[in-house]
Amino acid sequence: MKRLTGLVALGVSLLLTFPAAAQGRRRGHGQKTPVVMRVVPPRVAPGAVVTIIGKHFMPGTFVLIGRHRVRPRAIAPRRIVFVVPPMRRPGPRP
Question: For position 15, what pLDDT does the model report?
Answer without folding.
Answer: 61
